[in-house]
Design goal:
By secondary structure, this protein is α+β, with helices and mostly antiparallel strands. The protein is built from one helix and six strands, in the order E-E-H-E-E-E-E. The radius of gyration is 11 Å and the shape is globular.
């Protein structure tokens, strides 16, 4: 397992960190561990944190995931 990061893309709607956490775990077997909202990295953030486009997400996975299908989030 390795730590990676991805920028939540422009054009996506704001979402709770909780919804992204469950989506990434269920669909990609990765674990969301932190976020950078432009003011520094926050590890183990609260689940009610609002994720907006351009925020950087940090996750743990077996390998880098180059594409998350954000449209699959409920």
């Amino acid at each position: 397992m390795t730590q990676y990061s991805i920028v939540y893309p422009e054009g996506e709607r704001n979402r709770s960190l909780e919804s992204l956490f469950h989506f990434m775990k269920k669909d990609y077997q990765s674990t969301l561990i932190g976020i950078d909202r432009g003011d520094g990295i926050e590890l183990n953030p609260e689940l009610d944190v609002l994720v907006e486009p351009k925020h950087k997400l940090f996750y743990i996975a077996d390998e880098r995931i180059d594409f998350f299908d954000w449209a699959k989030i409920g």
